[in-house]
Structure formats: structure tokens, C-alpha cells
Amino acid sequence: MAQNRNPLRRSPKKVSPPASSSVQRKLRIAVFNRTFSSTGGGAERYSIALVEQLAARHDMHVFSQEIEHAWPGVTYHKVSAPFRKPRWINQLWFSTATWWATRRGFDVVHSHENTWHGDVQTVHVLPVKYNLFRARTGWRLMSRWIKVVTSPRLLVYLGLERLRYAASHGLQVVVTSESLRSIMASTYPGCREMVSVITPGITMPELPVTKLRRSRAREQLGLPTAGACLLFVANDYRKKGLEILLQALAQLPSDVMLAVVGNSSHISEFRAQAEALRLAERVFFLGPLKDVGLAYEASNCLVHPTLEDTFAMVVLEAMAHGLPVVVSGLKYCGISGLLTHGVNALILDDPKDVSHLTHVLEQLLGHQALQDQLVRGAIDFAENYQWREIALKQEAIYFSVVEAKNAASAL
Fold first, then answer.
1. In this model, does residue 12 exceed pLDDT 80?
2. pLDDT interval class at 39 (50, 70, 90)
3. What's this model's pTM, rounded to 2 decimal places?
4. Over the stretch 296-317, which tens digit does the pLDDT of each residue have?
5. What is the spatial distance between Cα 73 and Cα 236, in angstroms, rounded to a whole number?
6. How far is Cα of residue 57 from the mean position of the Cα atoms in its chain?
7. Is 278 exposed, middle or buried (0-12, 13-18, 19+ CB in 10 A)?
């Protein structure tokens, strides 16, 4: 999923096309993402940002079932969704419908979804095959295979994924982190030579975030203007560690609050957990926000004790706003392989360790010098990951696909 606050919902007038030493011919590009909205997850915001950056240079066509986006130079194609549930049937439908719509007439087809077709396949999550079979041997492996062959859902997901990464001339597979590159290489060795890393990026907001701006942001979001505010942003509250964070919050001083941004379908369950921990007056569930930048401005720290993240775009966005970040280590979160503990982030070896998370937050909130160091380190880090430059890497991959197609047709 405005230049003034949210790096991913900026005004079209404020965005310039990426700079390049030489602009090659304009390409006609199809982009697949079932949800094309800034209130979606990191994958959605990633694809939106690339489309926005490249729309002035290429003929961009978006194919999606849910479209909440408008950008000059982008053509939107609504894909029908007659089978919303079960999700695996919808995935198969979306793959078939987009294949039919883009089987000719495009220079490059770029998929952010589990589809069997696409010249560029961007991977945002761990492979289904990896999740199902990693570290399983003997009877545990056999029992997992029995589960797979008796599940139409798993058979469809695995089948689509196998076709998606099948080695073919010109195919390019893009992953969002080096840790995901190694997982892809071990899970689908045939595509090893086709894998490139293009991390998510940001557009730097107006800095610094002053006390006045923070106060105004809190007022707009309905947050208390006094006290320290921790921020949690995710659509999957369980996988991203909200339960652990609530337990840690219960050990912190009563003037520390938590703002939760993301999928509203999980709110009732986690509000009950907050109430059970006597945190009802300290936890604010804000739901999905189109302007997440407002939440960054309102907060003092982002806490991301995720149990699984191939990159964690939210961490980079928070750092761009000058927020200190507390984030799970590389075993759990891809961006941590680029971060340095104590310099630009505080990294958790075990995000499930409540006492350690509590201690880290106490250290951070109680030491202004540490906060200042992390603010400086965060901004310095984020400035190296701006969408203008990252979009050029994606564009280069598009042209390599076209060159490979031209070479194949000349044979």
C-alpha cells in the first residue's frame, strides 16, 4: 500500500521519475498483485511504490482484484473474484485470469503473486515448500507428504509455486533480502542463477519530526499527548509478535502506551488480551491507516518482535521517520542482516523472550543518549534505501528480460 507524511502515499506532483544516465525505450509492463492498496501489507506497498516510480518512464498496467489507488500514467485492470473463499481457489482463479489477460501484448509481466506465469517473479514470503518440509526427515517427512497429497489446497499452492520458479529462458526471480535469497536457492536450486535481491525502499519524509508535529499527530489519531508511545504495525498480529509485546508492556511504567496499526479483524482478540493484562487504557487499536506516516510521527519507538519477516518494510519506514527501532534478529527478520545493534537498531536474539524485550525497552526509554544515537543511525541507514534508486534496479531487470526475449526470438 503524501509526501508530507507517508512515504508511500505521496502526491503525484511531488514524485519525479528515477534518474538514469540513459533512458531506454518505453516498455509495456503488466503488474500482478491481488490487492493494490496502501492499507495492505508490505508486498502491496512495495509493488505500489515501484509502479509509482516507473509510471513516468513506462506504460504500467496493474491487474488486481482490489484496487484503491490512482496514479497518472497507470492503467488499472480489475480482475474478477467469483471465488473469494476458499483462498486457494481464488489464487488459482487469479493466476488463470491474469495469464489469459496478459498472454500477449506486454514486454514484461511482473508478478508479486503465486502465479505460474510472469517474466519477473518477486518473492515476498517464505516458499510454501520451505514452510512445509524444512528440517523434516523420516516419519515426520512422510506424514507431511501424506498431509499434502490429501489436501487440494496444499497441492494447488505447491503446484503453482513449482511452476512459478521453474527455470526458463529469461525468467528473473527477485527477493527482498539476502536471507530469502539463500532460502530460495536451497528450496528451488534450479532458479539459483536467476535470483536477484531488490530490497524495499522509502521516500524520505520531512525531518526532523518536532515535538509540535508529534503532538498534532497524536491528537489526530486520538492518542494521549503525554507519555512515551510505542508503535506496532502489522496485518498479522500473531506472526509479528503482538502477544509478546503486550506482555512486555505490562511490565513497563504506566505512562508508556502502545499504538497498534493494522488489520482490524484481529483487534477483538488482542483487545481481550490487553484487557486481561489490565492494559485497556494503555493500548490503542487504530486499525488500518492510509497515512501510516502519521503513526510514525506520533510515536517514540517502533517495536517489531516478528516471528517471520522476509524483510520488514515497516522497520525501514519507521527508520526513515527517525524512529528508534527494536526488531527481531536475522533468524526471524531479513532487514536485521543489514542493521547494527546499538548503532541503528536494537536487535532481539529471541523475540519470544518477554523478559529480554522488557529489558531492552526499559533501556531504550530510560536513556536519552541511546535514543539519540538510534535516531541518527536510523536516518543515515534509511537514506541509502530510497525508492528512486531502487526503482532503477527493477527497471534494469525489466530490460534484461526484454533482451533475453529478443535474443531467443532471433535464434
1. no
2. confident
3. 0.89
4. 999 999 999 999 999 999 999 9
5. 33
6. 24
7. exposed
Instruction: Give Cα separations from 294 to 28, 37, 218, 254, 318 (angstroms).
Output: 35, 17, 8, 23, 11
Determine if residue 47 is left, alpha or beta; phi over 0 gives left, psi from -120 to 50 gives alpha, anything else beta: alpha
Q: What is the DSSP letter of 82?
A: S
- Provide the residue type at 149 as one letter: V
- Cα–Cα dist 407/411, whole Å: 7
Q: How many whole angstroms from its chain centre is CA 222?
A: 26
Kindly give, in sequence order, each residue whose CB lies less than 8 Å from that of residue 318, ignoring residues fewer than 6 positions away: 231, 233, 296, 299, 302, 325, 378
Give bridge partners of residue 263 from the DSSP assignment: none
Q: How far apart are CA 93 and CA 87, in angstroms?
A: 10
Determine the Cα–Cα distance for residues 257 and 196; give it in Å rounded to an integer: 40
| Euclidean distance between CA atoms 9 and 40, whole angstroms | 12
Dihedral (Cα; 45, 47, 51, 54), 10-degree rounding = 110
What residue spans of 15-86 are helical by DSSP H? 42-54
SS3 87: helix
Q: Which residue has the cell 512495495?
A: 46
**66: pLDDT strictly greater than 90:** yes
Cβ neighbours, 10 Å, residue 32 = 30
- What is the greatest pairwise CA distance in the chain? 71
C-alpha cell at 299: 510515536
Q: For residue 41, give the nearest of 324, 240, 328 by alpha carbon.
A: 240
CA distance 214 to 232: 17
Place of cell 496478459: 102
How long a stretch of residues is the chain? 411
CB-count exposure of residue 222 (10 Å: 0-12, 13-18, 19+): exposed
Amino acid at 153: R
Report the first-to-last Cα separation within the chain, whole angstroms: 41
Each residue's pLDDT tens digit, 349-400 = 999 999 999 999 999 999 999 999 999 999 999 999 999 999 999 999 999 9
Residue with cell 515426520: 140
Q: For residue range 369-383, list pLDDT tens digits in order.
A: 999 999 999 999 999
Q: Which residues pair with 68 in a beta bridge?
A: 37
d(CA 79, CA 311): 28
Count Cβ neighbours within 10 Å for each residue of 302-335 and write b for 16 or more, e otherwise: bbbbbbbbbbbbbbbbbbbbbbbbbbbebebbbb
One-letter amino acid of 372: D
